[in-house]
Amino acid sequence: MSEKTLNPFEIAQQQVKGACDKLGVEDAVYEILKNPMRVMEVAIPVKMDDGSLKSFVGYRSQHNDAVGPFKGGVRFHQDVNRDEVKALSTWMTFKCGVVGVPYGGGKGGITVDPRDLSQGELQRLSRGYARAIAPIIGEKVDIPAPDVGTNGQVMSWFIDEYQKTTGEFAPGVFTGKPVDFYGSLARNEATGFGVAIMARDAAKKIGLSLNGATVAIQGFGNVGSFAAIYMVGMGAKVTAISDHTACIFDENGLDIDALIEYVKGNKQVQGFPGAQKELHRDELFGMDVDILMPCALENQITLKNVNDIKAKIVSEGANGPTTPEADKIMYDKGIIVVPDILANAGGVTVSYFEWVQNLMRYSWSFEEVQEKQEKLMVKSFDDIWTLMHEHNVDMRTAGYMMSIKRIATAMKYRGWY
Ligand SMILES: NC(=O)C1=CN([C@@H]2O[C@H](COP(=O)(O)OP(=O)(O)OC[C@H]3O[C@@H](n4cnc5c(N)ncnc54)[C@H](OP(=O)(O)O)[C@@H]3O)[C@@H](O)[C@H]2O)C=CC1
Ligand SMILES: O=C(O)CCC(=O)C(=O)O
């Protein structure tokens, strides 16, 4: 048996359709939600350091803005394509609905491996992208943020170029900015922190103590590294971590601070001197751990490896890491999967707080932001947990159902159906 599809957009549509059917909403709701409202494709010519000119392809997909402005990150990665961006924007709509932040879904990206570019080339590419999408974004229209391969520096170039292009000083048009350049305290930590607290709450539900619990994390970028830090802070041992080079292992728990320092210099986990063992990156999924956190890319838990999983809880830091077929197998086995649209919603939640602070020209303390994030995510977790039992569905379907109700209500008031 193999997967029906690995196309992330078809998977996103399947997930939305399943939840619409379960809820029994009018057909019009899925008809509207099955496609993004707009997808822009742009060509971005960049003068390379060697004097040549290279044209890169970029996208911005705006899925649905019934609840509020489109919101979602921008990915710089060699595998970015139109359907991936459409899927990511779809997932954003339902993620915002899950935590109840007043946004719709958007997502952007450029097909490029940023590691192949110099800082100058990266800046010119980022500015070209901001100029190209400027006509369709805005502080109250569509608010991009970081995703794989982008960060606060890229957001800062976006802001500057947007201002040059439109003449408008609008720090709230992008979130995920550096803290000393209109960013919010606790945004950098937010997604990983959320992934950790959602695992903590799932553990509570099944009576799993985090003290000494073991964790495996795929991906050690923004999301994976902060998830690791917070899990250790809660008493757990992160025994395995992978990136595209390797999976490193230590039965006593990896030293996360030392690994962060190592990765800063070496750009990879392979060769970390603090590891007991080094394995192929894909061996991470079969590790004998209590909690698994996929924090890299789509389609990582599939029919190929789902039966190797020994974890009791999967907290999805990445967007779309699990195929529907693998999802069903984990549900049947009683593995709790905290779905991406809830587990990684900390990022957009604190992006919302950043935006509110920007609009008020005011800032909150780290503790205040993190407390607000935790309160919101814990409530969403509890609501979804209740809904899951009421309808006898998995957490992902329950999350979509909760979200669809909110979005369908807004669409109804607007007279869209
Ligand atoms: N940043 C945010 O606020 C949010 C991010 N997300 C999602 O979380 C995921 C990670 O994002 P983020 O941490 O920001 O991205 P980063 O670019 O910071 O990190 C991505 C990580 O994934 C690793 N990776 C890539 N391919 C593989 C592979 N085949 N096996 C193992 N590891 C791999 C990368 O390793 P290497 O460096 O070796 O390539 C890197 O460590 C994405 O799905 C993103 O959409 C979701 C919500 C918010
Ligand atoms: O911070 C944001 O606005 C969105 C982050 C993001 O891209 C995501 O949640 O996938």
UniProtKB/TrEMBL annotation:
Belongs to the Glu/Leu/Phe/Val dehydrogenases family. GO terms for biological process: L-glutamate catabolic process. The keyword Nucleotide-binding applies. The active site is at K107. It comes from Alkaliphilus metalliredigens (strain QYMF). Residues 184-415 form the Glutamate/phenylalanine/leucine/valine/L-tryptophan dehydrogenase C-terminal domain. Substrate binds at K71, K95, S351. This is Glutamate dehydrogenase. The record marks D147 as: Important for catalysis. Coiled coil: none annotated. Keywords: NAD, Nucleotide-binding, Oxidoreductase.
